[in-house]
Amino acid sequence: MKSAFALVLLSAGLTATSAIAQTKTATKPAAAKTSAAKVSSKTSTATKPAATRTTTTARPAAKPVAKPAAQPAAKPAPTTPAPATPPPASSPKLEIPGVAPQQAPSFAKGTIGVNLGLGLGNGYGYGYSGLGGSLHSSPAISLSVEKGILEGIGPGVISVGGLVGYKSDSYTWDILGNDYKSTWSNIYIAARGAYHYNFTDNPKVDTYAGVSLAARITRYSTNYSDNSIGDYANKTRLEGGIFLGGRYLFTDKLGAFAELGYDMSYLKLGLTSKF
């Protein structure tokens, strides 16, 4: 009985020892893990101060010297546009009561007109009365130029210009079978002013009237023995004139003109041009 009980105890003791041994063996890895965790924790803990020290002891990186910001290029000052030159104030038009503005102005400010004509009619009264002679007159040749310079004085346009002309006259008579002849030559240089107003609806028509102031240079010659008249005829004199005229343009620049008045002759006819 005792021997059986002892066996039981021995068996129980072996079993308990085995169980304790297994328990110790099973817990060792956990301890290892714990130890490893502690080591890891220590390592982490130990490395942190190092990192901290490194961060603490490391000199702050030198701050880059801030370059002054490039100033933007100065914008050019806005240029104020020059004020537009106002057009010259046109002179107020002088309205003539009862006269309507010209219907189709063909002669304006800046227009240039040129007339080349032949004059008919003697206006100087040459000749010897009572001698039974005859007077011969050549056509008066004239060239005139004018330019429109002023508008707004009434409905029309004022022009100024000049005229150069030549005219000759001769008188012949017979005394006791002798033929005598006297000749007058006239050079006419005039300054002229005219007023252009178109009374029609046709833009090709230009009608005008004006006055002139001229120097008439007369030269006299004769084969008659008594040349006393030469003392009177060879001279230069100032003369005034008046004229009324009109031109008609066949094209934009070429046409015909006619003038009535008293200067070189009573009537002038010829060609005209406008620029």
Automatic annotation (TrEMBL):
Name the segments for region: Disordered. Answer: 23-95
How far does the signal peptide extend, from start to end residue?
Answer: 1-21
Q: Where is the composition biased (Low complexity)?
A: 23-77
Domain of life, source organism? Bacteria
Composition-biased stretches, type Pro residues, lie in 78-90
Q: Which UniProt keywords apply?
A: Signal
What is this protein identified as? Outer membrane protein beta-barrel domain-containing protein
